[in-house]
Amino acid sequence: MIRGRKDRGLFLPMALLISLTTLFPIGWALVISFFRYSAYDTTPVFVGLENFSRVFRDRGLVLSLNLTVLWSGLKTFFEIGISFLVAVRLRHSSRATRLSMFILGIGWFFPAFITVSAWRGLIQGSAGRSFVSSILGMSVDITTQPVAAFISTLFVAVWLSIPLSTIIIIAMLQSVSSDLEDNMKLDGINDLNAVAIFFSQVRTVLIPFAFFQFARSLKEFSVPFLMSGNGPLVPGGFTPETIVGSTTFMGVLLFRKFSIAENYGLLAAYSAIVGVLVFGWLLAAMFSRLQPPKRHTRLLVLSSLVHLALGLFSGRVFGSILFFCLYLLPLSFLGRRLSFRYSVGFVLLADSIYVVLMVITGGLAALPAASFLAIPALLLSMRYRISIPNLSVKPVLKRALMVLVLAPTVVLIIYIALLAMSPVNDVIPRLQGLRLENFKTVLVKDSLLLNMLNSFWIALLAIIIVAVCVFPFAYSHAFKQRKITSIVLSIALFGTSFAGMHTLLPVHMVFQRIGLVNSFLGVALLVATQCIPLSVISLIAFFKSIPAEFRELFLLEGSSEINYFLRVALPLSLPMIGGIATYVFVSAWGTFTTPLLFIDRIDMMPFSLKIYSYVGEIGSYYSRWNLFAAASLLGIIPLLLFYKRSLRFTYSGALKERGVVYE
C-alpha cells in the first residue's frame, strides 16, 4: 500500500465538534457541580459535596427513578416483543409486506411532536371526551388518572418505536440461512418453536440492541412531556424538593429543574447523577456483547455494584448490602458450570421475590430499580433453556396482529387530516362543512412559512457541519485506523448513546457563555452530533468499498491524500451523500427538545416549536387543534420533497459495482 501525504488534519473537525458538544460540557458540569453558581454570581463559590448531598436527599428523584425504570422496562419489553413478531411475519419481501412496511413507516416519518400531540387529542380529547373514551365506554382522563397517563404514554412510545425496531430486526433475520427455514418447514416446526429458533439465531445482536433501547428509554423526554407533562400526582410524589407525577420521568424532572434553576451547580449535580444511572444500563448493553465467561463475570459485578449504589441512594441499606454480596456469590463457582448456573438462578429468584415483596409492602416508592438491570441482563446472559409448547397460531390471529399494529397509524393519519379541515377549534373534528380555511390561516395569518424557513436553516447548517466534520473523518479512518481516530470515534459513538436531557443541560450552560443560545448554529451543532453514528459508520463502510487501486494510482501521480478525497472519493460518494443528507434533514426538521431548550425568541422559532405553540402542554386552555393539524400536514411537504430530491443522488450512475462505475 502506497502512503499518501499526511492527512492527519482530516479528523480535526470531528474532534472539535465532539469536544464542543460532548466532552467540554460534561467536564464543565462535573467541575461546576462542586460550586454554587447562579446567573447573579460573578464568581463560583466552592461548596464541595453540598450539591450532591441535596440531590441524595431528594426523595422525589428516587420516585422518579423508579417510575422511569418501570416505564422503560415495560416499553422495551413490548417494543422488542412486538417488533420481533412483526419482523418474523414480514421477513420475506412481497407486495403485502412492502405495503405493511409503508403503512408502518408513515407514523415514524411524521415528527414525534406531531404524532404525540395528535395521540393526546385522540386519547385525552376535551375533559375526557375523546374517541378512545367512546370506544372503551369509560372516561379516560390523563390529567387526573395516574395509571391512565402512564399507560397512554407507554402505548404511544411503543407505537413510535416499533417501525424502526422492526426494520432493524428484519435486517438481523436476513442472516438466517434459507436452508434452515426449509428444514423447519420439512420438520413441521410449530409457530412458537419457529419464533424460538429465529430468536436463537439473532440473539447475539438482538440482546445488546434491547439493552441499548432500554438505555434510550431511560432518557426519554419528548413523549411523556408532550403527552401528559408531569402526569397526575402519585402517592408520595409531593416532596420538599420535587413534585412527581406518574410520568415525571428523569428527563422531564431535569427539564423542570432547569426551568426554575437558580443554582447551576445543583443542576449540574442532578445531571451528573442521572448520567451515572444511564451509564449503568449502557454498560449492561456493552457487556452483553461479550463471550462467556467474561460476559457473566462483568454482568454479575455490574449488578452487585448497581444494587449497592441504588440501594444506598434509596435508603435501603440492608437490601443493598445483601444483594451486593449475593450477586458476587456465583463468582466463586465460575469454574464449575452447573453449580454456577444454579447459583445465578438462585440469586435471580431471590431478587425477583425481593421486588414483589418490596412493591407489596412499600408501593412504587420501594421498587428496587437495580433489579430491572440485574434480572434481565443475567437471565439473557445465562440463556436458560425453557420448554416451548407445541403450539401453532391460527392464520387469522397472525393477520389480527398485523391489523392491531397497523391500524393505529391509519387511524391517526385520518384523524389529523379531518382535524385539519374541521371548521371548529375542537379536539374532535366536525365532519360537516369540512374546508381548507385552516391551511390559509396558518400560512398567511400565522406566518408558518417563516417557521419552516427557520427549520430549513437549521437543517442546512446541520448538513454542512456533517459534511465538513464527518466526511473527512470517515475517509481518514477508513484507510488508516490511527489510535487518535479510534478514540474520537469511540467518544462520538458513546457520547451520542449517552446523550439526553442530563447532557443537554450542561451544553446549554456552556453555549450560553459562548453565544450559541438563541442561535441556529447552536441547534445545528447538536443535531449534527446526534447524526454522527449512522453517518460515520455508513461512510466508513462505503469508502472501504472503493477499490484500493484508484487511490494508489492517484497517489503515484504525486497528488495529496486530501486532493484524492476531494476529486475522487467525494464524487463517488454522491449516493451516500444523498442518503445521509436526507437523514440529517429529517432529524433537524423533527428535532424538538433541542430548540425547546436553546431557542426562546419568537422570530427564531422553528417549525417544531410552532406546532407545539398550537397545542401546548396538556391542560392548556389556548389549544388550537384544527390549526395544529393543518400546520402539521403542511410541514410534512418539505420532508417529502427533500426525500424525493435526494433519490436522484441515491440512484445516481456512480453507484454500481462496489460504489463505482467500471469502464
Keywords:
663 residues; mainly alpha; MetI-like fold; two-stranded antiparallel sheet; 4 strands; 71% helix
Helix percentage range: over 70%
Number of strands: 4
Named at the architecture level, the CATH assignment of one domain is Orthogonal Bundle
Our estimate of the beta-strand percent is under 5%
State the secondary-structure class: mainly alpha
Total helices: the number is: 29
Largest beta sheet: strand ordering: 1-2
**Cα-atom Rg, whole angstroms?**
26 Å
CATH topology type of one domain: MetI-like fold
Average pLDDT, rounded to a whole number, is 83
- Major sheet attributes: 2 strands, antiparallel
N- to C-terminal distance: 24 Å
Poorly predicted spans: 1-5, 649-663
Name the CATH homologous superfamily of one domain.
MetI-like
Shape: globular
What is the CATH top level name of one domain? Mainly Alpha
Characterization of the model:
By secondary structure, the chain is an all-alpha fold. Among the domains are: 295-382; 444-650, MetI-like fold. It is 71% helix and 2% strand. It contains 29 helices and four strands. The protein has helices spanning 12-32, 50-56, 59-89, 95-109, 112-123, 131-136, 146-173, 178-186, 191-218, 222-228, 250-259, 264-287, 294-314, 317-328, 337-362, 371-382, 395-420, 437-445, 448-479, 483-498, 501-513, 520-530, 532-545, 548-556, 561-572, 574-589, 593-598, 607-615, 625-650; strands spanning 35-36, 45-46, 233-238, 243-245. The strands form two sheets. It has a two-stranded antiparallel sheet. A hairpin with an 8-residue loop joins β1 (35-36) and β2. The radius of gyration is 26 Å and the shape is globular. The model is unreliable at 1-5 and 649-663 (pLDDT under 50).
